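Much of the work behind modern protein science is quiet bookkeeping, done one molecule at a time. The protein below has been through that process, and both of its lines are reproduced in full.


***
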Amino acid sequence: MAADLPAEFDVVILGTGLPESIVAAACSRIGQRVLHLDSRNYYGGNWASFTFSGLQSWIDEYKQREATTDEPVTNKEQILENEGIIPLNQRDRTIRNIETFSFSKSEDSNIVEEIGALSIKPELLNTNPTDGDQPLQESPAPEQPELQEPQSESVEHQETTSESDQIPGANIAPNSEGGSTTDAEPNAAKVCQTESRKSITYSDIVREGRRFNIDLVSKFLYSRGLLIDLLIKSNVSRYTEFKNVTRILTYHNGRIEQVPCSRADVFSSKQLSMIEKRTLMKFLTFCADYEQHPEEYQDYKDSAFLDFLQSKRLTPSLQHFVLCSIAMVSKNTNTVDGLKATQHFLRCLGRYGNTPFLFHMYGLGEIPQCFCRMSAVFGGIYCLHHSLQCLVIDEDSKQCKAVIDSSGKRISCNYVLVEDSYLSEVTCAQVQYRQISRAILITDCSVLKSESDQEISVLTVPSEDGRQNAVYMTELCSSTNTCMKNTYLVHLSCPSVKATAREDLEPVIQKLFTLDADGGE
């Protein structure tokens, strides 16, 4: 019950996104009394994952909230002398311009129900804040083998993949097909093996909606990095399951091509000449320990990375591969930064698979929940659909000493962490935000045909005019448990340049996909 919450905590956290969830787990683990709140009725905040119907409900709710205004702070009698307040937003303003489109055939979708959906009596739909005030209980994790850290560190072994090279306690699910190099064909983006497939309709998607886990923010992880290290050291990895990204693609010369990354991929590639293969391997070997050879790049430290690549006599195709799909930087990136990015890519190769990237099964929204579970195990108290009206500030020390929750209860605390979406524009007046345009697609074929229909792909589409940013795309197959069989879940993103995400991303979508209800999307 909200009224039964203790009047004092060490740490109060508002928002259950990934950063907030990590801090909650860390504080609970060292014995701090943690109260973790979220005005939403789900975990993850803007990092959450939804089923198909859940995403539609989220969109409808979000549009309704945009028309509402924040209520003034009540219970001001709780504010003592020599105290001030910082009002908090009651609605999220960080997401804007949400639009939905369908290019699939419809078969009376209005009467189709989701398989497995339950008929819930209206009296059970109680969203009172008192429903979420009990500590989150840990559900037993499925038994998984204890796995060891990989031993190989050298560049020479980066092309090898070991079944045992997995995150300890986690499960790196095997891919049904390895990421072998595929000989790309012109216009391969619009080629699809549809002869043996039944056309996917909107009704099919609604009916199988529970098989979708759609991220609001989809990201792949480098196999070496701070988050992977944190998952291992904190033992949160025992709750998680990953799959290795099977191939890295790029859009080059009007077609989609697979980028050779490892030594084996380079020398088996049919896209590169023998001279290009040797040039690329020589360059990648240098990048693996470029710090040991400063004389090689000393004259280009203050120059663009592209200039350095040209000085190494890389062909235009090799320059494109290195810039867009290996280093993943722009043409104007500093040479040293480009070398660091390339080196990091190479060091991540071979740790868990033939590419350096991992994707979380069931979507990224599972990771915040894993940290929330850990916090709850160590005593953290969780209240969903429960928020804060304001922060109480000591006028002398300028420190936050308490909060007033949505029920008007004053809760004393030593530390407060608030997700930025709850902070008002006045509070964040000095903060400069960067807008990101995102698109989520459900498609019935891959952007690049392959022998397997279970490829997990990362694709870079560079700007043609050089004035806009590259568009990054992740294509997920059904084996990631993010979409139904015979479909793909596609996420596209880029820094915002125009007024809406549609204006930024539609030209790329038209290049890669056939938006035709007769031919499928």
User: Anything to note?
Assistant: The chain is about 25% helix and 20% strand.
